[in-house]
Write a structure and sequence with these properties.
This is Diaminopimelate epimerase. By secondary structure, the chain is an alpha+beta fold. 19% of the residues lie in helices and 44% in strands. Strands 5, 6, 7, 8, 9, 10, 11, 12, 13, 14, 15 and 16 form a 12-stranded mixed β-sheet that branches. The protein has a 5-stranded mixed β-sheet with strand order 4-3-2-1-17, sandwiched between helices. The mean pLDDT is 97. The protein binds the ligand N[C@@H](CCC[C@H](N)C(=O)O)C(=O)O.
């Protein structure tokens, strides 16, 4: 494979290789992702983001090479990449994703902080909740598939629910602890990746679930291993996520 310019970014420890789609479009994309995301023989990352321009589009893949419709931490990093690379420095970006258009509002440049209109939760409540063994699972979509458990973090349970036959396309699994009505802490076992330090769509899905069940307010801070996200749910159910994005490195593959 030819040498490809790459950058690495993270959003609260959820890390991504980012490059332009035009650099990889004629390559074996899945092999490229698996090799750069490998933490021993590559750079190491939870996923890969390819940037398309005119119009702006985020093409997201998990570490294992599977395509995912959206990534909450990833879209903040996408916005920072567009800013750093001078692709688009507008305060408001409209970004096409497989989960529809997302709007990203820049709040500050340094530190780089954005508020993202994540849209609405879908397909929740229809089947709420389902029971998998001793686990009460609240499932639905906030840009991608999520299952929420009000239980302490357990990686084995995360793996097993992710791969449970109730979810033919697997599910991301979020473990939520309510500290008080405006403070939650969350850990996520991600489809296509395993345990991550943060999951933006997972945090949105978790807060939506907790709020709908009357367990928290509509404006909350969520503690993750490397920092916090702020989530607001407006009166008609639209979800907003505010959080940082940071650049780690730039280079090129050998
Ligand atoms: N880390 C992400 C979600 C990435 C996609 C997910 N693993 C899936 O397959 O749906 C986030 O921050 O939202």
């Amino acid at each position: 494979m030819k040498s490809i310019p790459i950058t690495k970014y993270h959003g609260l420890g959820n890390d991504f290789i980012i490059t332009r789609y035009s650099y990889v479009e004629n390559e074996d994309i899945v092999s490229f992702i698996r090799s750069v995301c490998d933490r021993h023989t590559g750079i190491g990352a939870d996923g890969a983001i390819f940037v398309k321009t005119n119009p702006l589009e985020m093409v997201y893949y998990n570490q294992d090479g599977s395509r995912a419709p959206m990534c909450g931490n990833g879209i903040r990093c996408f916005a920072k990449y567009c800013f750093d690379e001078n692709i688009d420095r507008s305060e408001k970006l409209v970004v096409q994703t497989l989960a529809g258009k997302k709007v990203v509002y820049r709040q500050s440049e340094d530190p780089f902080l954005v508020r993202v209109d994540m849209g609405y939760a879908e397909e929740y409540k229809d089947k709420w909740p389902i029971q998998i063994g001793p686990h009460t699972c609240y499932s639905g979509f906030v840009s991608t598939v999520h299952t929420v458990l009000f239980e302490p973090w357990d990686q084995t349970v995360g793996h097993d629910i992710c791969h449970d036959p109730n979810y033919p396309e697997q599910t991301n699994v979020n473990f939520v602890q309510i500290q008080d009505p405006t403070h939650l802490s969350i850990r996520t076992y991600e489809r296509g990746c395993g345990p991550t330090l943060a999951c933006g769509t997972g945090v949105c899905a978790s807060v939506y679930t907790a709020y709908t069940l009357g367990k928290c307010a509509n404006s909350v801070n969520v503690q993750l291993i490397k920092g916090q996200l702020h989530i607001d749910i407006d009166p008609d159910g639209r979800i907003f996520m505010t959080g940082p994005a940071q650049k780690i490195l730039e280079g090129e593959t050998a």
